[in-house]
Design goal:
The chain is built from 18 helices and 14 strands. By secondary structure, the protein is of the alpha/beta class. α1 runs antiparallel to α2, α5 crosses α6 and α6 crosses α7. The chain is rod-shaped and about 185 Å long.
Length: about 650
């Protein structure tokens, strides 16, 4: 299968039926009972004719008998010849007239019989004509039904759900560590083989990207992993920044420890930092800036002896602190800034240079994670430093193809709103895809979720208030169909984030990667899915639908770990799709990398007769869709009179 490229991020798979079940096959028309001359009708016609002819028959008999009597009397001499002749003549006339009338009646009866037989012949011809037309129509209906049945049987059940065109950010709301692991692995499994790059900021303290790292290594990719704070000396994201950029970065880091809504003056912090950086000159390290702040606060300590700052710079900073009437405020702010930046003092101080001419380490998969031992305040400071430093890196990067580089921020709820805004703007300008995963919905994040061209994806929500807010944003109208596989695997899969990262910072350059071998079944989710669908009966159960539900708060709190409701704006209104982010679904035969719309819109290809394969190829490609079901024949629907004719089973070579 050909990858669509890193331009559209794969979010998961949608369980749906592209073609509906065709229903029962059309019934074969049965020949009507043959029309024939009814004996009862013929007998009735005969009886009626006899009843009408009784007076004529009586007159005929009487005339004949009376004429014979007259002849007998005339022969015996009882009657004279004249009288006998006159009587016989009268009787003969009566007999002739009545006999003629009887003959006319008989001819009329035979004529009616002949007309009835002709009518019956015409009815038979009409019946045969309708029967032949019905058989031809049945053959066409049967062919159309077989095409619909074949399309229904051969259709996929899982269709790719990709980020809509034009979206620059994905906001994942809620979710567990295992669910985020599924989203991350599914997205990376589609981006890395297509030449994309993935950067992960894991601020959760859990090893969310652990499953992805195992998958990448099994596929031949050696990722770069930094675990903070231990790897801070080997991570220098703020290196090379100018005065204003470095001051902005450190000011944002210093404000991370302040609770949202607290009174603070970031302009004062940035002004102090700019002056310190001016005195230090060049592009000082964070440790040198922290030393300058200590000197500004009146405590040079051992910084001059340690070489972090020169004596001349210390004198200039001391003189700077004594100017003006706000010296006390500057001193206090300098101490506050130093106390917050001290956690980053080791950043970039211990990078290990690689032997030349060996290139610097580069990998298309980079993970920067916080150790689970990092506290709440330390996590905010380190997370803000990473996000702000990456913001400056992205500002200086030239724009590339959309979503060629994707940045995942796991635990974005730990970052302040202005930090997220600056990071989102930098990603949008550089065409870098941004995925923000919020474990909860803080107040400052709610108006930003799904804003503009961003796409919102709702996963399992632990907090009831967050579930109500997400349910209101989704609305009560849409209903979603949950597959049995999603519910089964989501409730039984092992925690894919259970473990710890192993740092690779400072190691040699990673080996060359092979973009052609990325099998999502090698992940923890993939192995659980393969185990659950190991036999055909289990696979058949896994393909079934489980239940249908609305997006209510209770349902959002009970979503399976890998289920996500994706909501985005379209010209026709807001759309919502239920997807399963389980990367193991991609390895099922019932899954395709085509979206549901692409699968339906793909040109129809008439399936080859399995009984006579061409060139030894007995089966079409897996992603070749069956022909779309033709529309039903016009006219009245065909009645259901039985099953379709038996077809050749190509797997057994017999009927």
């Amino acid at each position: 299968m050909t990858s669509p490229g890193p331009g559209r991020l794969l979010l998961g798979w949608q369980y749906a039926a592209a073609y509906p079940e065709p229903g029962p096959p059309p019934r074969r028309p049965t020949p009507p009972e043959a029309e024939r001359l009814s004996p009862d009708w013929a007998a009735a016609q005969r009886r009626e004719e006899n009843q009408l002819n009784r007076p004529l028959k009586a007159a005929f008999v009487v005339a004949v008998v009376f004429g014979l009597v007259l002849v007998a009397f005339g022969v015996a001499g009882s009657l004279g010849p004249l009288l006998t002749g006159l009587g016989v003549t009268c009787c003969a006339l009566v007999a002739v007239v009545s006999g003629f009338a009887l003959g006319q009646g008989e001819r009329a009866l035979r004529s009616r019989m002949a007309e009835e037989r002709a009518r019956i012949d015409r009815v038979r011809e009409a019946q045969e004509s309708r029967l032949f037309a019905g058989q031809a129509e049945h053959a066409a209906q049967m062919q159309a039904w077989q095409a619909r049945q074949l399309a229904y049987e051969r259709q996929k059940r899982w269709y790719a759900v990709r980020l809509p065109e034009g979206a620059h950010r994905l906001d994942v709301i809620g979710g567990t560590a295992s669910g985020w692991s599924a989203v991350l692995t599914t997205a990376a499994a589609s981006q890395l083989p297509a030449g994309g790059e993935i950067t992960v900021l894991d601020l959760t303290g859990s090893a969310v990207a652990l499953d992805l790292l195992g998958f990448a290594r099994a596929a031949g990719t050696d990722p770069l992993v930094w675990v903070l704070p231990d790897d801070l000396p080997r991570l220098d994201l703020g290196g090379g920044l100018g005065r204003d950029a470095l001051a902005e970065l450190l000011s944002a880091v210093a404000s991370a420890a302040v609770e949202p809504g607290a009174d603070r003056d970031p302009s004062l912090d940035q002004a102090i930092l700019e002056r310190v950086i001016d005195v230090l000159g060049g592009q000082p390290a964070i440790a040198e800036v922290a030393a300058g702040l200590r000197v500004l606060a009146g405590d040079p300590g051992d910084d001059v002896a340690a070489g972090l700052i020169t004596a001349g710079q210390a004198d200039r900073l001391a003189a700077l602190a004594g100017r003006g009437t706000d010296g006390r405020a500057v001193l206090e702010r300098a101490w506050v800034l130093e106390s917050r930046l001290r956690k980053l003092a080791s950043a970039g101080t211990g990078r290990v240079p690689l032997p030349q001419p060996q290139p610097q380490p580069h990998s298309r998969l980079r993970v920067i994670a916080l150790d689970r031992r990092v506290g709440t305040t330390g996590g905010r400071v380190l997370g803000t430093y990473l996000a702000a430093a990456l913001t400056h890196e992205l500002r200086g990067a030239p724009p590339g193809p959309p979503w060629r580089h994707t940045l995942f921020v796991l635990g974005a709820d730990k970052l302040r709103g202005e930090v997220l805004d600056r990071l989102s703007d930098a990603c949008e300008r550089s065409a870098t895809g941004l995925v923000l995963a919020y474990g909860s919905i803080p107040a400052h994040a709610r108006p930003r979720l799904g804003q503009g061209s961003a796409v919102a994806a709702v996963m399992r929500l632990a907090d009831a208030a967050d579930a109500r807010a997400a349910s209101e944003s989704l609305g009560t109208g849409p209903r979603f169909v949950l597959a049995q596989l999603t519910e089964t695997i989501g409730g039984s899969v092992a925690n894919t984030a259970d473990g710890a990262y192993v740092s690779t910072a400072g190691l040699a350059a990673p080996a060359a990667t092979d973009p052609g071998h990325h099998d999502p079944t090698r992940t923890g989710w993939g192995m659980a899915t393969a185990k659950a669908t190991a036999d055909s009966e289990a696979l058949a159960r896994a393909r079934q639908r489980s239940r249908e539900f609305p997006a209510g708060p209770d349902e959002l709190q009970q979503l399976p770990a890998s289920a996500m409701i994706i909501s985005y704006a379209t010209p026709g209104g807001r759309q919502a799709v239920l997807a399963d982010a389980n990367p193991g679904i991609g390895g099922l035969s019932a899954a395709t990398e085509l979206t549901l719309e692409e699968y339906r819109a793909r040109p129809a290809e008439r399936p080859r007769d399995p009984a006579s394969p061409a060139d030894g190829d007995a089966s079409p490609p897996d992603d070749t869709p069956p022909p779309p079901p033709p529309p039903p024949a016009p006219g009245r629907p065909a009645p259901n009179l039985g099953p379709p004719p038996r077809r050749l089973d190509w797997r057994r070579g017999r009927f």
